Structure formats: structure tokens, C-alpha cells
Amino acid sequence: MISARRILSILVLTSVTGLPGCVTQDGSRDTPAYDLVLRGGTVYDGSGDAPYLADVAIRGDRLAAIGDLSGAEASETLDVTGLAVAPGFINMMSWANESLIEDARSQGDIRQGITLEVMGEGSSMGPLSEDMKRRMGERQGDIRYEVTWTTLDEYLRFLEDRGVSPNVASFIGAATPRAHVIGYEDREPTPEELAEMRALVRQAMEEGAVGVASSLIYPPGSFARTEELIALARVAAEYDGLYASHLRSEGGGLLEALDELITIARQADIRAEVYHLKASGQGHWELLDDAIARIEEARREGLAITADVYTYPAGATGLNAAMPPWAQEDGFAESLERLRDEATRQRIAAEMLEESEAWENMWLGAGSAENILLVAFRSEALKPLTGKTLAEVAEMRGGDPRFVAMDLIVEDESRIGTVYFSQSPENLRKKVALPWVSFCTDAASMATEGVFLQSGAHPRAYGSLTRVLGLFARDEGLLSLQEAVRKLAALPAENLKLDRRGRLREGWFADVVVFDPATVQDHATFEEPHQYSTGMVHVLVNGVPVLRDGEHTGATPGRVVRGPGWKKQRS
Asked: In the chain, helix, strand, coil percent, each to 5?
């Protein structure tokens, strides 16, 4: 049923803008009224209201008209009868920062309908010191590139100038100014150092960062105390930015970690987002209900607390995340020396078996080495182990899995990409249905070709957002399709305070996806992750088709999307 308000808006829009063409003063027809018209589709406009049949017209990079445009002329028309037409989806937490340098097409994400990548979880691609640039070069794996930028703005402009298919945005990672000013020591900043860190956050916010984001289980971000995070968040709040956080614990300390985020939001007077909300480790699954209740209580209080999730019951990070943070102090190179020292190895192995409130123990969260899947190696000699569990590799080597894990990190000279099976499928469904939860991949945007096939992957890189439409909305009915679209597009755009993105409205940017609700489907699995989603028919970014009839066009119209601080700085 179309509301009276919707009928009125369509009639007004059609009468004003749905003209058959542009006519000159002498009565002759000039250029067609529109560049592209999508005819006959079912429009899910991002509001969460019921869908309606309408044509959608695009002129330049904007949505020009929505309604009955049967008499309008256009340079191109696409018949989308029977298909859903929706605003482009927003990947609320993306790790496409390096993969877009390797492959600008963003194939894995574009085929999920993602038109905006939001990066910067914990650490960001700027601002960088010379030491940080050196370390970034040393840590590179299969994807190699020259670090030619210093500021976050320069990195984002680098992507835009070279050409990328999706739009890009970024937080400034809270660990980035810390590493820039303090380095990789586990200590509090001096007042002078904190002032310098705040100045770097201010610079990034004025450049258009969407906020400041922490990741509090990874050094050096984990070394930050609550007061430091409040101080950085207060700067972001001055520019109407968002504070987002990978909580200090997603296991036994989940509720305390969530309380820290709520405290930061309250004291910094800032909106806050929980990255990939979860209760990790079977013994902690029951904590999720309490976590949800605490968030909803904070929302009733008036705090703008939201969350995002990826749509799988397993997470992915480095193998070294199963080891205590002190072992990683002073940087990765120094951590390798600790993993070579026998006495230190014994201490690390012992602490991997201990419950701790000081750090999130991924080893215990997974339950056993059988639930730890190795998916990304740097060394050619170790790549044959890709896709094996740590238990399988330990059996092959005849050793304790804890010490085998240390050996692998030393041999590979990398964190080693790892999937941890530690979450509840039932909890996942609860989170997907929550009205204040949006979605992310928490992964690079990959392709089923080239350098990406040299390593395994988490299937979320190819299917996290597609599963919302197919598995959870269509197949299981956890939420309606219009609500799914709202949570994929409008909700994250509103949380980030983005300018004219996230909905289908006249005058807004023409980030548009067209998909078949009956067939949209993810195909990536943990065993065979490099498989594209299907059912996405057309994807437009800033009015330019980057996916047409299910195939990538090669177009790279993506732009830097900046937060409200950039606009404020120029007003």
C-alpha cells in the first residue's frame, strides 16, 4: 500500500520534472531530459516504507526524478521491470584500503551492491610519520605499493585520482595519532603528546574524516586508556563526527567494554558505533542479550549508540591475536624476537590458556585449534597451508598448536590471516534483526583472479551484505526487504551524517543498485571463499554504471565522501 504522502510526492515530482525533454525558447527540443532512466522497477527508497512501482531518472551524478516518466526522453533507458531499485549500500567497516590499490574495480563488493567503502578501523592510512611509512612498506604482503602520501586526505585523493569504482570514506584510526606521536610503547601520553594527538585528529576531521575509530584489542590501540579515547573523541565531536570502536573485549569482558564505549559517548558528547557487535566464545554467548539491553537503555537515555555486524558466525584477524598484547609491544618486528626467545615463548603459551580481563583471548574464544582456520600467508613456502586448521598443521608438524602458531608467525614474518569460529548462529540472527544495526564486510574487496587467489579469505569478503537480502530477508524472513535496504543504505548514511547519500531522493547522489530479490544470493564458503555473489544486475556510482547486466563495466567513478567536519570547515 502506497501512503498518501508518497502518492502526493510522486504526482508533484512527475508534474514538475517528468517532462518529455528539454525544450528551447523557439520550441525545438534540445538534449534529452535525462542521461539514464530505469523504467518499471520496484523502488525501495531507503526509508523503510513499503516499496512502490516507479521510474528513476538520472542526470549527471544526481537523481533527477522518481515517478511515472513514460513520456520522458533519455540518452539511455534500462528496463528493470520485476527488479528492485534501491540506494547503493554502505560497507560500514571495510578493509579495502590496500585491495583498491591493487584492483580499483572492487569486484567482490560491487557485486554485493556496495557503493561506499568506509575504512579506518583502529588504524588509518594517514596521517603517517616517516617511521610509519617505513613500517607500512615492511608489512606489505601479496599487494605491493609505494606509500606516496602522508595525510589521510592525500591517501583518499590518491584513490580518487587513480580511479576506483566505489566511493571511499575513512575514519581516522585512534591508534594512528598514537603511533605517530608516541610510537608503539605501552604508556600514557604526556599532556603535550595528547595535545599533539588531538591536533592530528582535528586535521583529519577538517579533511573530511567521518570520525575517530578505535580497535582496542590490537597494539598499539589497546594501550590507550579510556581518558585518552575521550580526549580524541571530543575533537571528533566538534565536527559532528562519529566514534566507532572494536571493543576492548568481545568475550568475557564484553559488558565492561561496552560500558567503556557508552562512557566515551556520554563524556565526549558524541554518537558512537560498536564495530561488528558480538559475544565471542561459547561460554560468553549469553552475554549478548545483556549487551543489547545496555545499548537500548543508553538509546532511551538519549545517547546515539548504534552497531554494525558481518553476517557470519566466525570472525577473522591475525593469528597473533591469540597471544597477549604485551608480546606485541614496540611493533611487529620486536614481537618476532620475543617469539624466538624460549623463555618468552613459554610465558606466552601459558597465558594463552588463562582467562584474562586484561585482554581478549582469541585462543580460548575459539575453543580449540580445530576452530582456528589459517587463510592468508605471506611466504610462498607456507602458502600450501592455506585452508588448513591450526590443529591440522600442528599434527603435520608434531607439536603443541600454541608453539606451532608462534613458529608460523616467525617463519611467515606476518600476523597470518586467520578465521576464528567462536560465535553463535542464533545470536547472529538476533543482531541482524535489530533496527539500529547496519552491516559490514570487515574485509578487503577482493576478486576471483590475480593476486587475491594467492591467499584464502573469509567468505564475508564476497557475501556479507548479500546475505542480508537473500538469506535473512527473503529466505528466513528475519526482516522485510524494505527494512533490509534501510539498514544497508540509509541507516549507515545517517549515522555518518553523509551529505545526500543513502536514499533515493531527487537531487541526491545517484548511487543506485538494481537487483533481483528472487535470486540475489551469496556463494562464498569457508572452504571455497573466492566466489562472487549473484543477483545484482546493475550498480551505479555517482550516476555511472559500474555493473551492467551483472558484469563489471570497468568504470571507476568513485569519489571521496567526506564527513560533516569538512563541510563545516568550509561554511
From this structure: 40, 20, 40
C-alpha cell at 104: 580499483
Give a three-class secondary structure readout of 167-185.
Answer: EEEECEECHHHHHHHCCCC
What distance in Å separates the CA atoms of residue 512 and residue 367, rounded to the nearest whole number? 42
Cell of 145: 605499493
Q: Which amino acid is at 390?
A: L
Q: Which amino acid is at 73?
A: E
How far, in Å, CA of 125 to CA of 102, rounded?
15
Q: Contact 103/116 with Cβ under 8 angstroms?
A: no
**Residue 324 confidence (pLDDT):** 92
> Any bridge partners for residue 241, and if so which?
none
* Distance, CA of 310 to CA of 422 (rounded, Å): 14
Length of the chain: 571
In whole angstroms, what is the distance from residue 366 CA to residue 390 CA?
A: 11
pLDDT digits (tens, 9 = 90+) for 523-569: 999 889 999 999 999 999 999 999 999 999 999 999 999 999 987 66
What residue type is 554 in one-letter code? G
- State CA 155 to chain mean position distance: 17
Containing 132, the helix (H) or strand (E) segment is: helix 130-139
Buried b (16+ CB within 10 A) or exposed e, 34-63: bbbbbbbbbbbbbebbebbebbbbbbebbb
Alpha carbons 338 and 324: distance in angstroms, whole number? 12
What element of type H or E holds 512? strand 512-515
* Separation between Cα atoms, residue 502 and residue 470, nearest integer Å: 20
What distance in Å separates the CA atoms of residue 186 and residue 246, rounded to the nearest whole number? Answer: 19
In degrees and rounded to multiples of 5, residue 551 shows phi and psi of -120, 140
- Using a CB cutoff of 8 Å and minimum separation of 24, what contacts does 546-549 make? 546/105, 546/110, 546/165, 546/166, 547/110, 547/111
Confidence at residue 8, expressed as pLDDT on a 0 to 100 scale: 36
Give the pLDDT score at 16: 34
Q: Are 28 and 68 in contact (CB under 8 A)?
A: no
Coil, strand, or helix at residue 404?
Answer: helix
Which set of grid coordinates corresponds to residue 563? 564527513
Task: Please report the DSSP string for 59-103 in residue order.
Answer: ETTEEEEEE--TT--EEEEEE-TTSEEEEPEEESS--TTTHHHH-
| Cα of 339 vs its chain's centroid, Å | 32
Residue ranges, the chain, pLDDT below 70: 1-31, 568-571
The angle subtended at Cα 98 by Cα 94 and Cα 104, nearest 5°, is 90
- Residue in the structure block whose three cell numbers are 599434527: 395
CA–CA dist 351, 329 (Å, integer): 16
Q: Comparing C-alpha atoms, which of 495, 494, 474 is closest to residue 484? A: 474
Kindly report the backbone phi and psi dihedral angles of residue 152, in degrees, each rounded to the nearest multiple of 5, phi listed first.
-65, -40
Say what the pLDDT of residue 568 is: 66
Report whether 160 contacts 168 (CB < 8 A). Answer: yes
Joined grid coordinates for residue 509: 547522489
Report the pLDDT value the prediction gives residue 569, as an integer from 0 to 100: 66
Rounded to whole angstroms, the Cα distance separating 254 from 235 reads 26
